[in-house]
Design goal:
Aldehyde Dehydrogenase, Chain A, domain 2, Aldehyde Dehydrogenase, Chain A, domain 1, globular, seven-stranded mixed sheet, single chain, binds succinic acid, about 475 residues, 2 domains
Length: about 475
């Protein structure tokens, strides 16, 4: 079993580590070895966490913003001081290569730093009243207790991106991380404790009964706001559940990112951009390229260069420094990818490189498919694996029609040099985030979020606090 000072094996509620009668195993997707046995929390513990957050709310929300910021800054410093250990833990439970895991830890920490600073800049407003005896004043206040459900693909950063905004706004927080990757969340809780974040302000409940725990977090009357990162289907169910108590919700859901290569693109740059955007985290991010659209006149050049770059990637154990693609999260994730590839090949796509891997049950080779059409299942669904389908197009209009022909609207990418085209395409793409000659777009300063069925709300940036604040209007009369 894995040993580390940051390895915690029970939920963190009201500043206490909880142990329960039953346990579940957390395993390493590289070889299925058991990393830890973790106390299995359920409904009772989730309710306890909400109550703890409710009790802590008064003290935390009334602290001056600069005092909250100082505690958050300490939390940030501790996360960065422990970056190597946190990254190793993350690679072990999630599989991503160590360099990517280290990147996720600093990415995750950057939200704590960013929002610690932004929390000091929550401004109100005054407005022109309709008569002289009145004044209109707007103040902003924390929404209250925030509940979150976060995914396994970013076991650290998807928590801090929500928790840091919530805490900076003066809210308290309860998160249920994915049961596949709870150890990074618990390590974050340990560091929040060391930083002096008061008991009950940041709570982590870990357990396998996602449905029952989700029910508590989406229906409990003391939860004012619910936030989720995960699939669109699960998000829809959670939104419905939140309706029963009319909670504020923000949702970061699935994507189907087009990556468009126009004939005026720098092809070498486009190849590099497509590789990083497609194969980051073995293709398991919501913003990963899902469909590569290439203009016919540059199709041959792009495809040949792309296949060479993909074949240079090394698949293996994330702890090995030479590896740049780790295992996928589970065998069921592999099965879904296999099925999408089989359907594409049956429908006329061609396998240029990759396919099933002999390395182990959770491995799939970085794969490229040619002759894909937008009607195939692989183009309509979020692949969430290391497979790049290439679709060709003739005109700008056709590229836009294909790119927007999806219910998703999270991220899109395109490579072009003509400035008129850059504006036309940027404005016409129906996606919340656009990478223009760039394959990696996520950072704390930028608003992360989607349109259409990819969700609502924005995380990070100056807009990220809005989802955790109420606007209150004060009408002052008798003046
Ligand atoms: C996600 O996959 O949900 C997040 C990816 C990112 O933050 O870049």
């Amino acid at each position: 079993m894995y040993q580390s000072n940051l390895l915690k094996t029970g939920s963190y509620i009201n500043g206490q580590w909880l142990s329960s009668a039953t346990y579940f195993e957390v395993t390493n997707p590289f070889d299925n070895s058991v990393l830890a046995n973790v106390s299995n929390a359920g409904v009772t513990e989730t309710e306890q966490a909400v109550v703890a957050a409710k009790i802590a709310l008064r003290g935390w929300s009334q602290k001056p913003a600069n005092e909250r910021a100082l505690l958050m800054r300490k939390w940030f410093d501790l996360v960065m001081k422990n970056q190597d250990e946190l990254a190793e833990l993350l690679t072990l439970e999630q599989g991503k290569p160590l360099a990517e895991a280290k990147g996720e830890i600093s990415y995750g920490a950057s939200f704590i730093e960013w929002f610690a600073e932004e929390g000091k800049r929550i401004y109100g407003d005054t407005m022109q009243a309709p008569s002289n005896d009145k004044r209109i004043v707007v103040i902003k206040q924390p929404v209250g207790v925030v509940a979150a459900i976060t995914p396994w693909n970013f076991p650290n950063a998807m928590i801090t991106r929500k928790a840091a905004a919530a805490l900076a706004a003066g809210c308290t927080f309860v998160v249920r991380p994915a049961a596949l990757t709870p150890l990074s969340a618990l390590a974050l809780a340990e560091l929040s404790k060391q930083a002096g974040i008061p008991d009950g302000v940041f709570n982590v409940v870990v357990g396998t009964d996602s449905r029952a725990m989700g029910e508590v977090l989406t229906t409990h009357p003391d939860v004012a706001k619910f936030t989720f990162t995960g699939s669109t289907n699960v998000g829809k169910t959670l939104i419905k559940q939140c309706a029963s108590t009319v909670k504020k919700v923000s949702m970061e859901l699935g994507g189907n990112a087009p990556f468009i290569v126009f004939d005026d693109a720098d092809i070498n740059a486009a190849v590099q951009g497509a590789v990083v955007s497609k194969y980051r985290n073995a293709g398991q991010t919501c913003v990963c390229t899902n469909r590569i659209l290439v203009q016919e006149s540059v199709l041959k050049e792009f495809t040949e260069k792309f296949v060479i770059a993909v074949e240079a990637l090394t698949l293996g154990n994330g702890l090995d420094h030479a590896v740049n693609i780790g295992p996928m999260i589970s065998t069921s994730a592999i099965d879904e990818v296999k099925q999408l590839v089989a359907l594409s090949l049956n429908a006329g796509a061609r396998l240029l490189t990759g396919g099933v891997s002999e390395q182990g049950s959770c491995f799939y080779q970085p794969t490229v498919l040619a002759d894909v059409t937008n009607e195939m299942a692989i183009a309509a669904n979020e692949i969430f694996g290391p497979v790049a389908p290439i679709i060709s197009f003739k005109t700008e209009q056709e590229a836009l029609q294909i790119a927007n022909d999806t219910e998703y609207g999270l991220a899109a990418y395109f490579y072009a040099r003509d400035i008129g085209r850059v504006w036309r395409i940027s404005e016409a793409l129906e996606f919340g985030m656009i990478g223009i000659n760039e394959g990696i777009i996520s950072n704390a300063a930028a608003p992360f979020g989607g349109m259409k069925q990819s969700g609502n709300g924005r995380e990070g940036s100056k807009y990220g606090l809005d989802d955790y604040l109420e606007i209150k209007y004060l009408c002052m009369g008798g003046i």
